[in-house]
Write a structure and sequence with these properties.
heterodimer, A: alpha/beta, four-stranded antiparallel β-sheet, B: mainly alpha
């Protein structure tokens, strides 16, 4: 059984069906990439999984337990952390306050700040500065580091490469790969940048207008000429 | 010179009261990003309750404690029942609801306690200290007021800056959705913010009541002055609110003493407008500006 299972998930915004009958799974220690153009339903899929949007139908199971209907505040307590699009750092708080916030509900059980700083040495240098002063890449690191503070088993990442320089994107992708392979996290990675996402993913799912139009092992998707020209843009 | 000293002392003691109201407004602002225009009416209710308890029990401190407890409860109820419905919506909705609550509470107070202002006892003697044979315009009760302001500002700063609950409250106020994703129970934080602010507000009511008496509309000017003090301090800083309150108290005391008391409200308005025009972020803000 996969750690995160999504089964026939459907989300409607009024008359608009944003997520349409999506089924996918993420194994422990692996990365599943969700690809597709703007408006394909990628962000809506993640927001439904983490409880921010209400599903119309389907199931989301973490380790066999249903997550749909669980309040947003409690989803993270079940072991699922969502790193939202646009970083989601709280600009008015300092770097360190943002990090601490991620582990507060765990109390003494949270990851030590020094562990996160070891993973992201840049953040240690800027610990007391307001998050507003961080660069795009630093904010992304802060956002991921903050999610890690709660010791999640599943990490949802929404467009971590958005707005980042290619070299920074490569660093972030390498880090995500390490989190899955060395720490055993199940990662659901939403990306428009299909090429870099597929370079680290185990499996890929391509969405179009909310529906799954292709899925399979990452190398196979990357090698599919028709898919690349129709949906992936590389 | 004696007059100047008297006006200064008087400014400090009345400014301290504005500062407590400002602290309550800043607290709500930091915890929920709402300016609570009903604060004046809420503290009026708790002060009336204190007045009833004191006159029936004869104990000032019992009334004091009951008022603070009622403030805590009133704040939580107002948030749960009323403000919860407008949180996250356009800021104007919250302002309108707060103004509606202000009118409602003043009407209810009038029905229960009547519209004639009644006197209220001070915590300590209001007879000025005797320094070298002359009585100065500063009494043990004023000392108490000033100490309360400093204490409240320090405690609130420590809670918001240094504790987990303060961090959660700030996160809930700035980015409720992100805070929820990180496991913060945002609803509880907002309730707590309102409860604490109403507690501080009821403290302000108890401090100011001996001077202005207790009546349904007696506290309206206090809210205006408290709001001005909060804006002077930048709305976001407890220390700023405390200092803003004292500065405003001094300014209004000089205006009242040298130009006449009828100009006081006008002077407060002028100060408010000038600060908003020149330093919209408050006197103590760094460069960041906010649209008001």
């Amino acid at each position: 059984m996969a750690l995160l299972e999504i089964e026939q998930l459907t989300t409607d915004y009024g008359p608009v069906r944003a997520v349409d009958d999506v089924t996918l799974a993420v194994e422990q220690g692996s990365i599943t990439a969700v690809l597709g153009a703007n408006g394909a339903g990628k962000t809506s899929l993640l927001r439904t999984i983490s409880g921010l949007e209400q599903a119309s139908a389907g199931h989301v199971r973490l380790d066999g337990e249903e997550l749909l209907g669980v309040p947003v505040e409690d989803i993270v307590r079940r072991g699922l952390a969502h790193v939202p699009e646009g970083r989601g750092v709280i600009a008015e708080l300092s770097t360190e306050e943002n990090l601490r916030l991620g582990g507060l509900w765990r109390g003494a059980d949270a990851v030590a700040l020094s562990d996160i700083y070891d993973l992201f040495p840049l953040l240690r240098e800027r610990r007391s500065e307001l998050a507003a002063s961080l660069s795009g890449g630093e904010r992304q690191m802060l956002s991921i580091g903050r999610a890690l503070m709660a010791r999640p088993r599943v990490l949802l990442l929404d467009e971590p490469s958005l707005g980042l320089a290619p070299i920074v994107t490569a660093q972030i992708m390498k880090l995500i790969s390490t989190l899955a392979s060395e720490r055993g996290l199940a990662v659901l990675l939403v990306e428009q940048n299909a090429r870099s996402a597929l370079s680290i993913a185990d499996r890929g799912v391509v969405l179009n207008l909310g529906r799954v139009v292709a899925e399979g092992a990452a190398p196979a998707l990357a090698a599919d000429e028709d898919l690349r020209t129709a949906y992936l843009g590389f | 010179m004696t007059r100047f000293i008297d006006l200064t002392l008087n400014g400090i003691s009345t400014g301290a009261i504005y500062a407590v109201v400002a602290l309550a407004l800043v607290l709500i602002w930091r915890a929920t990003r709402i300016v609570n225009f009903a604060q004046g009416a809420m503290l009026m209710i708790t002060t009336f309750i204190a007045s009833s308890v004191i006159s029936s029990s004869g104990s000032y401190w019992l009334g004091f404690g009951v008022a603070l407890a009622c403030g805590l409860v009133l704040g939580a109820v107002v948030e749960r029942v009323l403000m919860r419905r407008v949180e996250g919506g356009p800021p104007l909705n919250a302002v309108i609801v707060a103004l509606g609550l202000l009118i409602l509470l003043e009407a209810i107070a009038g029905m229960i306690w009547g519209n004639t202002p009644r006197s209220f006892p001070p915590a300590f003697s209001i007879q000025g200290y005797d320094i070298g044979g002359t009585r100065v315009l500063f009494s043990p009760n004023d000392t108490f007021t000033v100490l309360v302001v400093i204490g409240v500002a320090l405690v609130l700063t420590a809670v918001f800056r240094g504790t987990a609950i303060g961090l959660k409250m700030r996160a809930a106020a700035f980015r409720p959705e992100v805070a929820r994703m990180l496991g913060v129970r945002v609803g509880r934080m907002l309730t707590l913010g309102w409860a604490l602010a109403a507690l501080v507000g009821s403290l302000a009511g108890l401090l100011v009541a001996p001077e202005i008496f207790v009546g349904p509309n007696q506290f309206d000017p206090i809210l205006v002055f408290g709001f001005t003090a909060a804006v002077l301090g930048g709305l976001d800083s407890f220390a700023g609110a405390a200092v803003g309150g004292i500065l405003l108290g001094l300014a209004l005391s000089y205006v009242s003493g040298y130009e006449g008391s009828s100009l006081v409200t006008l002077a407060a308005l002028v100060i408010l407008i000038v600060v908003l025009m020149i330093r919209p972020g408050g006197l103590f803000s760094s460069t960041q500006e906010r649209r008001v």
